[in-house]
Each structure stands twice: as C-alpha cells, then as structure tokens.
Amino acid sequence: MKEATKPLPYANETFRGFLDRLRTEKELVDIKQPVDSRHIATLVDQADKALLFHNVIGYKMPVVSGIIRSQKRAIMSMGCETYPEIEFRLERGIEKPIPPRYVESCAAKQVIKIGKDVDLFSLPIPMFSIYDGGPMITAGITIARDPEYGLNSGIYRFMVKEKNLTGIDIVTPNNMRLFAQRAFEAGRPLPISISIGNHPFENLGSGFRAPLGTDEMSIAGGIRGAAIELAQCETMDLPCIADSEIVLEGEILPTGWTQPEGRFGEFTRLMGGLHWNPVVRINAITMRRDAIYYALHMPWENTWLMAPTRYTQIRRALKTAGVQVKDINVTLGGCGMWHAVVSIKKQAGEGKNALLAALSVMDLKHVVVVDDDIDVFNAMDVEWAIATRVQGDKDIMIIPGSRAKPLDPSLAVMPPGVVPTGAKVGIDATISEGIPRERFERIAYAYTDRAKINDYYSGKADTVQQAASGDAAVTELAAKIVAVIEKTPKYYSELAEQFAEYDFQTVARTLGKLHEDGTLWQDPRGRMCLRNSAFAAKPPVKGP
Question: Which residues pair with 129 in a beta bridge?
C-alpha cells in the first residue's frame, strides 16, 4: 500500500500536544467555569467539539473527553487526511513494528501514592449513563504479563467499587481474559498496569487484537513511527506507558468471574447488562503533578478508532485467501464491529471465498460481498446489489455455532463464564457466474456531458443545423445509417448523436422507415443492425 510508505507525521507528539493541536484547529473547547462531574458525559454528548473541563467541582484535576468522538478528530489524531488512511497507518504498525524503549524516569511518577494512600475517589472519574453501576474508568491501557506468552496490552473498562478496588470487564474472549484465567487457575493474582491519558496512537495499537505473544506496544510504536517509552512500575515488575497522565498499579485477584459489574453504555449504543467479572485491587497511583484525567466517551470515541482495526484484519484475511479487494466498509450501523461490506475484483467462485475469509475475522457477524462496480459506502447501492444479484438458496451462507461477542443483545442469556456462540451470515451479492454482465448495465442518460439543467435555467436554447427535410431527408439519412450499421451495430442513441445535424424527428422517422422496410433489426445487446446480418439476434424457437 502506497500510504504505508509515507513519512509518519506527529511521531513525537504527546497526549498534551494532541490536545493543543485540537485547540488550535478549534476542535477543543476549554470549559473554565465550575462543572459538576455528573454533568460531564451529557455535555460531551451534546457538543460537536472535545471538551476540557478545568474546574470540576470537588476535584483538583481537570477532565478531558470527546477527543476522538468524531471522524474528523479521529483522522486528525492519526495525522491523516482521510479516514481510510487510518487503516494504512495501522497496517504499517503491524508490518513495521518498533519495539518500546524503557526509560528510568518519567513525568507520570511526579506524584506517587502507595498502599493506604491510594484513593480512587480522589480522581474525577465521572458517571456516564443513567443505568451505570458506578464511576467507570474507560480509557485505561492495561498491560499484563503471562509467564509463557509475554506482554499483552488492551483497553478495558474498570468500575470503581471502593477506594482501592475496581472491577475489570473481561467477559469477551481475548488475550487479557486468557492471562487472567491462567493466573486464576494457578491460584495467583495477575499484576496489571493501567495507563490513563495517552495519545490515540497508543490507543489504536492497544485496541488491535494481535495474535497471542505479540507485543501491542511494538505495533503502537510502528503506528507512531517512534518507539513508545515505557517505565517500570513502583510496586511490581511490570511496565507502564511513560507519557501517561495517570498510572494505576494493581492486580486482578484470583476470585474468578464472581463479582457483579455494570451496567454500562456499550459500543452497541445500548445499555449493557450486568456482567460477572473478577476484581482488581489497586496498590499504587502515580501521576503528573498537573495531571489531566481522560474520560473516553462511549460509544463513538471507541468506534471511530476501533473500526479501522477490523478493516485491517479483513483485508489481511482476504489477501491470504487470494481475493483482490477494491474497498471495505465496516459500517457504523453495524456498530463498527459486526457488519462489513466488501467489494472485490471477482474471478469465478471468489464471492463465496471472500465471504468465508471475511467471516473468519474476529466477531464479524454479517458480511456482504459485492462486485467492484458497487459503492460499499452507499447503502442504497449495496441494497440494490442484494436485490438484483442474490438468489437466497445459493447466495446466502449461514454458519452456525460460531464464536460470538457476549455484548450481542440478540444472543440468549448465558450462565456466568459461558462464552456464547451464534450464527454468522454471508451474502454473496456479486454477479453469478453464467449471468451476462449486460444485464447489469445501469441506466445512463444520453448527453449528460453537454445538457446541463443550470444552463437551461439560465436561458440556453438548442439549435440544429438541418441538412435536409421531408421525404428527401429520410431517404438520404437512411442510406447513411445503413452504411454505418452494416459494419458495426449501434445503439439508437449513438445514431442520434452521430447524425445530430438532423433534428430528432427526422432521425426517428428514418429508423422507423428502415424498420417498416424490413431492413432494421437489433443484435443481442439491443443495438441497431441489419436484419439479415451476422450481428442480428435470433428469435427463440416458436412454441405453441
């Protein structure tokens, strides 16, 4: 991909540098008057900008939210010009990872609170939805280490329960859940660091579901174009992100999935249900002296950067399957997670191959594959392809018993700890083999290159240079038309254009006369030809 070879802008930009850039571009508004933390989420929901609340009542720390809550700000965060470029930046991070660099000291250690001094309630962690189970930490990049598989990073949600106790939402099967499960089965806690207030480069890298054993911080470095700096935690042998505003050091206790957690507004744009999860004991809080708390606002701050991770994995799966992709749309209607429309440069049988490859990706639930003449970003175009190119008995593929995401509200309620399965559906909306392509030639109106309505609104008048008139003109034109179509069949509109020196009535009368004489016929594509020529369409065998 050409985009993957471009120099990477903002490689050295910090979290605060990104906030400054948003402010310069008038994409961030500073709210300096006192604001109740209970109002933050609804104010961000109503705003078309990111908001930085400098004076949160009862707290000494400001709160920022909504920094990637629009497509424009997501594009800005990656230093891109268009949304699809985010995928290419992620692809570069995967293909050209840069290992993290460890530093001895960092600003996130300017304030250190350990043991009894740990107080999560001193942080301005806001409530979000009206049915929330408590204040939720939503932007924490969590790092854990497994003895066999090494480091893993991801973004998880933590519900604050006590001054040093939270839940962790790892109900969905993923690498962090596997690490916690292995620690639980060994009867030991799983140490984790939770870095809050990081550049979206690190968020995107952490949000990519990499293969087991892959260090997502190396992918984040590749995305950034420079090594991510990590620092050693104060209370455990584990790194945290050095440029963070706040770091929580804790451990997932070996209690199993036994504690109620939630509810919370999810990426589905629905209120999630009550989950059963482990708990996390926080042993230390380190931070900058002037730390800014980042409250990631659901669902759009999650969706705009998570959708490109699906694009990348779909494209890689299709490449492995040998399918040439034109475009991909992981739709917002599918919550940036469950629906994809893929256009391909199709060869025989590849519609089904593309479906099987795409449906293997993560938790994709429904995939539509279309030909490369369909605009995957135009819902009407995609629906038209389904309407005109699909026969349900051979073009709809249902794969039951597939891994599903527990947050899918259409799934049956499962007992705690049981990972649900569901159905994946693929629709092959490509033109089937054996169907003539001309069946799918779209309506294209004649003279669109020269007849413009605004010109006529402005008084334009058409003129025709009449070569002849009456019967003499018809006879003259007939001879000219016959001379053309005996060599090459022509569409009616092509003849009208070629002989535009005659008015249209004369052209129509001439073609009518040729038909009346038994001279005019059509070829299988509907073009005008001579009745007894090799081009002429043959009528079907007469029936009763």
Answer: none
The β-bridge relationship of strands 259-261 and 229-232 is unpaired
CATH of domain 453-530: 1.10.10.10
Q: Which residue is associated with the tokens 């190119």?
A: 389
> What's the pLDDT score for residue 2?
44
pLDDT band at 466 (very low <50, low <70, confident <90, very high): low
3.40.190.170, 3.20.20.80, 3.40.1670.10, 3.40.50.150: CATH of 321-438 = 3.40.1670.10
CATH architecture of the domain with range 2-13+84-300: Roll (2.30)
* Burial class of residue 249, CB neighbours in 10 A (0-12, 13-18, 19+): buried
pLDDT digits (tens, 9 = 90+) for 170-209: 877 789 999 999 999 999 999 999 999 999 999 999 888 8
| Rounded average pLDDT over 395-403 | 90
Collapsing DSSP states into helix, strand and coil, what is residue 514?
Answer: helix
Inter-residue contact 399 to 349 (CB < 8 Å): no
Amino acid at position 350, single letter: E
| Residue 439 DSSP class | G
Other beta carbons within 10 angstroms of residue 81's beta carbon come to: 10
